[in-house]
């Protein structure tokens, strides 16, 4: 038996750069089944088999298509985690290479977005869930059309199980070849919500300790620095990369890249020149909170304490008298 795997890539010195830029190329590889099986046994992953119920002519067409894909000039493709990946390519080559009418019949009972599909796998990885919700914008919340959830292997299995071929089922009943032994566990110390609440608490405590004499504390400046860096990253992912799903990110309403400048602005300028900026910034935060439940992008709930911290900084600077004292960076 031969295994054709669309999920192979070369890990080189430029891997992370290519991944961040959205320029990562994947390759169709071919190996014998025993080698493939040993790798899955070693890593504790399971293997489930679905046999395609194609006639001999369509089996040959599918095999010929794999041979054609495996040619050196065809085996490399530009990876896209939603629209063209190692899982979605399987459904596509089956649909396009066989002559019989293949139909994917599964329809979700409720509107189902790409973010919804990803969230199911991140229950035990709260920081990964937070990072994805932070980095991916409105396109991630688009409702998937029929068959578009096949970018996930489990969804591909489900889609194939319900697909039809010439008025009958496309595949046989799934059979477990190797049971799954490794399951993700929640080993995280502190969730994003806990860390954000702790940051807000520290901010309040430091302000109380100084009895309000330092209108903007070092903690406030650290928050401005971190949110400014986050905004710079989000802007880069949107405008500087080929990641389609990172566009139109509403997290930029709170993660303003200009916060990076405000974090280091001298005290004398922060009250004068910064007051107008923080008035506009406060307005953006109000819009964010007011539209939280109505925006086309699903924002992570752990951001609420962060928005509260930023709003409190804005309020103090907007209402402060000119003679107030501000901590120097």
Structure notes:
The protein is mainly alpha-helical and about 325 residues long. Helices cover about 45% and strands about 10% of the residues. It has twelve helices and eight strands. A three-stranded antiparallel beta sheet has the order 1-2-4. A three-stranded antiparallel beta sheet has the order 5-6-7. A hairpin with a 2-residue loop joins strand 6 and strand 7 (about 170). Helix 8 runs parallel beside helix 12 (about 305-320) and helix 11 (about 265-290) packs across helix 12. The longest helix has 24 residues, at about 265-290. It is elongated and about 85 Å long.
Give a brief rundown of this model.
By secondary structure, this protein is mainly α. Helices cover 47% and strands 9% of the residues.
What is the string of helix and strand elements? Answer: EHEHEHEHEHHHEEEHHHHH
Q: Main sheet?
A: 3 strands, antiparallel
* Binned strand content: 5-15%
Contiguous low-pLDDT stretches (5 residues minimum) are none
| Rg, nearest Å | 26 Å
How many distinct helices?
12
Helical percent range?
40-55%
Write down the overall mean pLDDT: 89
How would you sum up the global shape? elongated
Helix and strand content put the structural class at mainly alpha
Number of beta-strand segments: 8
Q: Looking across the biggest beta sheet, what order are the strands in?
A: 1-2-4
The N- to C-terminal Cα distance equals 65 Å
Question: Key features?
Answer:
47% helix; 3-stranded antiparallel β-sheet; 329 residues; single chain
